[in-house]
Structure of Pyruvate, phosphate dikinase:
Amino acid sequence: MSGERYVFDFAEGSAADRARLGGKGAGLAEMTRLGLPVPPGFTITTAACIRYQQTGDFPLGLLDQVWAALERLEARLGRRLGDARDPLLVSVRSGAPVSMPGMMDTVLNLGLNPAAVEGLARVTGDRRFAFDSYRRFIQMFGNVVLHIEHDRFEQLLAARRLEAGAATDAAIPAPQLEALVADYLALVAERTGKAFPQDPFQQLVMAIRAVFDSWNNPRAVVYRKLRRIPDDLGTAVNVQAMVFGNRGPTSATGVLFTRNPNTGEPGLYGEYLTNAQGEDVVAGLRTPAPIGELAQELPAAYADLERAASALEAHYRDMQDVEFTIEEGRLWVLQTRTGKRTARAAVRIAVDLAREGVIDRAEAVRRQDPEQLRTLLYRQLDPAASLTVLATGLPASPGAAGGAVVFDADEAERRGNAGERVLLVRPETTPDDIHGIVAAQGVLTSHGGMTSHAAIVARGMGKPAVTGCEAVVIDLEARQFTVAGRPELGAFREGTFLTIDGASGRVILGEVPTVEPDLAPEFLTLLEWADGMKRLTVEANADTPEDAQKAREFGATGIGLCRTEHMFMGQDRLPVMQEMILAESPEERTAALERLLPMQEEDFYGILAAMDGYPVTIRLLDPPLHEFLPDAQETERELAQALARGDEPAVARLEAVLRRTRALAEFNPMLGFRGVRLGVVYPEIYAMQARAIFQAQARLLAEGRHPVVEVMIPLVAVPAELERLAGVVAETCRAVEAEHNRSLPYRLGTMIEVPRAALVADRLAEYATFFSFGTNDLTQTTFGFSRDDAEGKFLPAYIAEHILPDNPFITLDQEGVGQLITLAVARGRSRRPDLKVGICGEHGGDPASIAFCHRSGLDYVSCSPYRVPIARLAAAQAALAG
Ligand code: ADP
Ligand code: MG
Ligand code: MG
């Protein structure tokens, strides 16, 4: 034989041949090698399919190779295709290198014709079985190869079932099945204008061609686009001797998982149907029985099945999804592949397999998908609840949330702040909607993808979101929505209670009870293993003792970013803060600061206590001061009213406020008067904060606790800024040390958030003993993007047009921002070899960014508390990747 080989017997291949033989073919070959009971057959390669797609015809030599393989198969089984005495029947099965379940086609029972069906009836002594097989063949061939609607066959089948008075297909007796075959043949003739092809060789050629063609059927094309599967992989074709699950009560067909794919519990999990074939399990009129019942019904076959399942698991070292058929008590395995599973099951299975010694712990950690595991950390729908699903959108941000529907952000804020649970429902969201998102339990948008504004913001906040739910048709004018394609439901008014499941994208009518995420013991075990493998320390961003507590529960060993601005926002504090900002003289300012001091001290006391023994990195005041002042327009309105009333003192006060507000107004607050710049102009603010920190530290030390204090100066760009403020902090520390008569050790560090800081990192390291990359601001300042504008306006287009691979605010831009990080680490450590370096911000919880931090030699990552477990896992995976 000359030319390329396109056909391989199952006995020739192995699991390594996936690209060439497809997943199904490689699996059949591997199982054959293992000695499992696999009906013999051969595989036509994906290369043949690709040639066929290119030329529209079978490549030269292919059919010769098929006939040769068929002869080998016939010789082996002692039966021949189309033989009127004892016919060989085959299945013709599709199977791509990448699993595309249900996307392509398969034909069973090929090789039957009027003579062969009589032969089959004679040799089996079972006329009913023979005609059941024949009618199945015509039906599948008619559908897959001749493109006659499945329904037309089903109608004829139902009519004969009715005529026979049979409850199920399996109960239709032989005469009605024979009549049905005649019905089917007539249908085919009518629909195609030709007689049904009764030559088995012609049937085989047509079926192979149809399976090749099914590579490009519309649903397969769409599926590949969705999953980013290349179009040029092609499908293999497996021609396999038939085994029959439809030969009576000791025959059956079924599917099983070697472990429970929902919970991960060990033990076979699946379903079977006696006296049935192939697809009946999923499509049939009868409800399949749980696999456990097979142990009673056909104990010997069940025992074989258990043995096969454990052999497959041991061999593939993972949970398998298996198709099987039992023919007159004898087990046949027809397919195996690595089984899909929930996050919960993924963890349980990996941990169990490691404990069973099938894989090692590193492998158990390596196998997890951190993004999938995130779903374990959110509140979830009560699995016992029954759901009225209205529509399904994109699973944009995991977690379950319910609330009354509101259609605008202001309304969401109003009702949310009044204590009502609301769900913000918008065509899409913009940065102007942030306040509404904050106040809502979750977000539902009818447009926008996984990187839309709503999706990004919600994920950042850890709020559930469903985006791109086009079926939800919103009428903002009428304040109602309808569900596309379901007019019977009518319109849903504002206030309707909906529940969204951000993990699955489901939109559910009414309130669904939710349950706490269950951190199963296996998950905790896995995380412990991960901790033993990672090099990076995982810290959390936390501003309150409650967050600090949560972070510790999730395994954080420190706080990498404790922001202090939120501490001034409360009812009791904001007025004092405003007083401080409005102060006309240093004395007035100091007086206000003195009132803030005890409050800050309590804040720091609480947080340091909650993190006892672990470092707490406290960032001194960062945002521009006008964020603490009332809106200028509002003040103007009040001023007008005061003037009208003739209220002199109020007029004077409001005029002062307005003057100050105007003086502090900025064209570009992001690049304005904030961070260390505040500290330089008003050193007394930072001095007060430092004093509060050290007094809290002194009290805790006096109580025998172990506060670990790190003071962090934000937004430094010039070494002299840091030098100045490091001096203020040191001086304050010395004063408090003297007052308490004890030494108060602390670290002083800086954030690296602007390119200039990265460039002068060696100079900064003269004063700083740690760096924390504020990668959010560093991304903004490196790109010159303001995040809200970017995400609201052009970033989605950038990602859609592939100008940027990802949102750089979610996944660190290694090409640009990453260079600044590595450069700053090198320069900083050149001056101070033991410089502690980490990142804080959203990137600290992103697996790809964490891997980058590991490779760049960082010491820690800090992220929001609910991402800590994912970061621990990702840090271990990064270490395992070397
Ligand atoms: P899919 O990829 O859609 O599952 P398959 O090629 O696996 O398609 O086949 C469809 C059904 O037919 C499955 O239930 C399979 O187990 C069954 N089947 C395929 N080949 C045979 C065969 N040779 N004998 C008996 N049943 C078969
Ligand atoms: Mg299958
Ligand atoms: Mg910043």
Summary: The pocket of magnesium ion (ligand 2) is lined by residues 323, 335 (CB under 6 Å).
